[in-house]
Amino acid sequence: MGYLTDRWSFDPFLIIAIVLAVWYEIGLARLARSSPERTRPRRIRSLWFYGGLVVTLLAVASPVEYEADRYFFMHMIQHLLLMFAAPTLIVAGAPWQPLLDGLPRRARAALITGGWSRPLRATASWLLRPWVAVGAFNLVMILWHTPALLDLAEDSQPVKIWLMHSSFLIAGVLFWLQFIPSPPLRMRMPPEAQAAALVVTNVIMWILAMAMSIMTQVSWYAAYDHIPGVTLAPFADQQIGAGILWVCGDFWAIPTLIVVVRRIMEADGTLGGALDRILARDKPGIGTTGTTGTGWTSRAGR
User: Fold this and answer.
1) 149/169 Cα distance (integer angstroms)
2) SS3 296
3) Total-model pTM
4) Which residues contact 129 (CB under 8 A, 6 or more apart)?
5) Mean pLDDT computed over 100-106
């Protein structure tokens, strides 16, 4: 029982989560006054959003964080919570309009149309481009599992909290926005490109897992060598972590791929036609549209 009660720690994300929750509730209250008929659906969505915040806190402040400093396989579980579990819940919760409405009126107007916010809007639009988001997700996953960067994060709490954990979560949100409806943001990646992106991402995860387990015979990470009290051999620890990455990543990728293929089948009518579209055998230029604009729908779409 001590493992569950005695090894919690403070993480700055706790403060961020509290601020986000208060901000979000202010926005929900304002939206309820302007369109009360949509209060119930928004409240239901809020449960997904709050679930994502809770999962994030569990990943960074619970015994998961304590054990992730001691075992690589626990680091990998933490990685999956921050890049897969928490972002999918946050995206499904669609907190964007309540957070926008939670701002003071002048700040909201300045953010949407103000000249000072133009670079911010341009950056957000670029990051939301489908293949930018997918590329960022895979790049973050690969970079933070190179020995030098992971050891740096394990040796420095600021690097771990503000760079590694934050980039895991942000890249995860950007990635899953391409696959999960999250109004008023639009999914701008065509279903055929979604399928390709999921397959490519899963293959990269497999290659990374194989590189850490069956393509090497040594532990990569000095940070996990010779930790007092840990009897699990570092290389065995690394192999378990690689297995978790290999298998558990599929828990999200494969169901999402099934949903995407069903979307294509609904449009085409047959599985063969869906496969043709995924392989671009009859649809030239797939994946080249929908990459401009901010991704916001009208206020009526909330």
Assistant:
1) 17
2) strand
3) 0.88
4) 188, 291
5) 94
**Domain coordinates of the chain in residue numbers?**
8-296
In this model, does residue 43 exceed pLDDT 90?
Answer: yes
Helix, strand, coil share of the chain (percent; to 5): 75, 0, 25
DSSP state of 182: B
The CA distance from 133 to 127, in Å, is 6
Q: Is residue 87 within 8 Å of 172, Cβ to Cβ?
A: yes
Which residues share a beta bridge with 182? 185
Ramachandran angles phi, psi of 188, nearest 5°: -100, 0
Which candidate, 165, 154, 13, 145, places its Cα nearest to that of 82?
Answer: 165
How many CB atoms neighbour CB 141 within 10 A?
Answer: 22
Q: Is 265 helix (H, G, I), strand (E, B) or coil?
A: helix
In the block, tokens 């999402």 appear at 256
CA atoms within 13 A on the CB side of 175: 31
pLDDT tens across 178-212, in order?
A: 999 999 999 999 998 999 999 999 999 999 999 99
User: pLDDT tens, 282-298?
Assistant: 544 444 444 344 444 43
Cβ atoms 182, 94 nearer than 8 A: yes
Please measure the distance between the N-terminal and C-terminal CA atoms of the chain and give it in whole angstroms. Answer: 44
Q: Identify the sign of the CA torsion 83, 86, 87, 88.
A: positive
Note whether 157 and 221 are within 8 A (CB). no
The residue assigned the tokens 């700040």 is 107
Contacts of residue 251, Cβ cutoff 8 Å, sequence gap at least 6? 84
